[in-house]
Specification:
- The complex is a heterodimer of chains A (406) and B (491).
- Chain A has 406 residues and is an alpha/beta fold.
- Chain A is 32% helix and 14% strand.
- In chain A, strand 3 and strand 4 form a beta hairpin.
- The radius of gyration of chain A is 21 Å and the shape is globular.
- With 491 residues, chain B is mainly α.
- Chain B is built from 25 helices and six strands.
- A two-stranded antiparallel sheet of chain B has the order 1-2. A two-stranded antiparallel ribbon of chain B has the order 3-4. A two-stranded antiparallel ribbon of chain B has the order 5-6.
- The chains are: A alpha/beta (406), B mainly alpha (491).
- At the A-B interface, helix 4, helix 6 and helix 7 of A face helix 21, helix 23 and helix 24 of B.
Chain lengths: 406, 491
Amino acid sequence: MTQIVLPRNPLAAPSRRQLMLAGGAIFGWSLLPKIASAAGARDPRFITIVLRGALDGLAAVPPVGDPAFASLRSTLEPDSALLPLDGFFSLHPAMKNTQRLFRKKEMLIAHASATPYRSRSHFDGQDVLESGHARAGYTQSGWLNRAIGLMPASSQRASARGLAIGATAPLVIRGPAPVAGWAPSRLPGADEDVLRRVLDLYTHRDPQLGKALALGADIDAMARGGGAGERVQAGNARAFMPQIARSTAKLMSAPDGPRIAALAFDGWDTHAQETARLAVLLGGLDDAIAEFETGLATAWRETVIVIITEFGRTVAVNGTAGTDHGTATAAFLAGGAVAGGRVIADWPGLHSAALFEGRDLAPTLDLRSLLSGSMQDHLGLSRQALSQTVFPGLQTLKPAAGLIRT
Amino acid sequence: MSGRQTSPPHRALTALNRFGYGAQAQAPVSLKQIAADPRGFLLQDIARPGAALLARADLPSTADRMAAFFNYREMVRAAREKRSFDIENNRVVEPQTAKPSSGMTPPMQPTPENSNGAGVPNEALRAYREEVSARLHQAAATPAGFAERLVAFWSNHFCISASRAQPVRIMAGAYEREVIRPHVLGRFSDMLRAATQHPAMIFYLDNHISIGPNSRAGRNRGRGLNENLAREILELHTLGVNGGYTQADVSALARMITGWTMVGRQGRLGVPGEFAFNANAHEPGAQTLFGKAYPDTGVSQGERALDDLARHPSTARFIATKFARHFIADEPPPALVAKLADVFRKSDGDLRALTLALIDSDEAWNTPLSKIRSPWEYLVATARVFAIGEQQTRGFWGMLYQLGQPVWTPPGPNGFPDTNSHWASAKGMKTRLDLAVFFARRNAPRFEPRALLENFAGEAASAETRRAIAGVESREQGLAIALMSPEFQRR
């Protein structure tokens, strides 16, 4: 039985206005009646960003204080200097906004964290990450949708509380609770990653198609203003992520706008050329975070963004200047409502005895406790509701405390 | 040539892909069942009564389409006249009419043709889209797809072009339904006559303005012969460019089909929009074609000429080559072409016999699957493998423009080329990839990449493709790669 829990503070809903379209196409929402409530009341925003492909937490947030780290990852060192965080952990040089927010105490990082999933399949890992269940196979709804379903409905809002970004809603926000959707009206076209994978396949199986596609992609890149050489980098991601963030922020700033959003970004599966690719991808993600900060404006104070990925990557570097699938990784909590300025980690160490299955950073923090802790304190969901409905089977875990400013 | 197949391709997949439009998401017949009797699977498809006809029965006839067109033209004229003049600002004021909404189609817009300057919704474009949609739906829904592939082949052989003029656009769907579909398993000569006498073809290749110089109309107006249709009949529909006809033959045929026209709005010659024989425009006298004399017997003069063209030995060879090229390989096996030409000749152009001879041949089942799916075939196969319903396929007609194969709109009367070098173009492949990503995003919640691959390729899926799909970082990426795999792109 679903337990309806009132948030600690009612939502503000001053007037009935349409969702701002921000140049995209809105589809699938239900208009609900609303009641005006006290001015100045809390109006929390909660955004989930799923990074698909398994973000290398050790590259994004390098544990420089660990004596084993430097020698293990020397070949993947970024070109510019790492950004210091707290003496033990540093930050990838492309994440300047993240460092700035960390200093402002609006960024919290959870390292050596993972879901309960211990295999290494992207599909299953993402299912576990987004469904909120302890194992794969549950694809009917996501934990965020179930959380939305627990929040007081109709009377408070003029429109659906949830917002899914993309041509298809990420699993995390799919489910019975109605959710609006938005996607950019101009498709960015195939990203460099999928293009590269198809070209690789053609190299082995179909040279005729490979030649044609390579030429077509080059021409395409030139038409967009780049040169033929740009094709091998994740060029699109750099501009795409902040653009999506900007549009999402705009939608969420509307007085009647959605308050809970989910986005997904591809491209993180850095089996090869990791240094170059992460530089671009993390830069794009960092710019996206800044776009949220700017775009949400005064609402930033009441915002929590969780940035999560299905698992991490191997500690060791592979034969193609990249890493393979791993286990524990880093997660980020960003926003004016976050009690930030620290890295939460029960650090297991990187010496070989400490590694999970002899190859991966061992997980010491269950991601669900991070997520449930942030939702309990930021959205006012009860622990019981979180452990029964949002993260079934979480009874034994404690929601992490103190993640949200009081 | 693709791949390194040394053994004959999997027979069930050959049946589905070489001769059909590929696997369906919810197929009524499994790959295993097809493998038990792949030839029977195809035979069943074409043995059904009315196999190649469009199941949907409510689409208008050619005459009705033309009636709608005449009506539309009137509306445009009336709307233009309603424009008032704003004296103060010294300008013409357009009447306020709602623009049709663009819906959720992907951002690939077709050649614009909806401007009539009067804000009236373009009826020709609407009808065209409706017909494309019906064709697509049938191709996606039919279990085997063999009959539909035959329709697509013959429609391209006797092609018209919707971009020639609005009347052709509005008639294009009806043309295929009335001229092509009833005859793909019938007689070539019947299809030839139906095509040549259809107003869409007549209009497309200017025969409605071809006047016999010595006809009453010719003598009165001093207008003359237009050889366009006659030439294309010889060069493209029957003998082929090397079939052995001369300029004299072209002119003779052109004269014989003068007066073959379409009834105009006034309906003086019959039902508006239908074929009519205008005796006033017909060139009088006997004509000689390939050394044979054809007395002037009115409309049947040209009809008998067409019948004889259908029987010409070069025609058998020309058709057999195109037929084999479309289904088997860009360079069709010579033995197969010879066999098919023989069957065509001996059966007097019986297209069912021709089709059976094709699927009875060894080459049909032993030749590697090397032909790249045309854009139409690619989109239909995608619609099938994702069970994309009629609502979501509404944008497909525009995608086909982007892919270079807008339906019933070939670049010339020789139709769309049927070769890999044409379809595996740089832009074409990049556009296919962009679309694959688009479809993958839309369908990621419902499909798992490895299962999809298993469905359309089965055990024929290569190790490399399996590996590429297994290594992806999201469902969307896996589905996109599956669609771009050689197993899906070639048939």
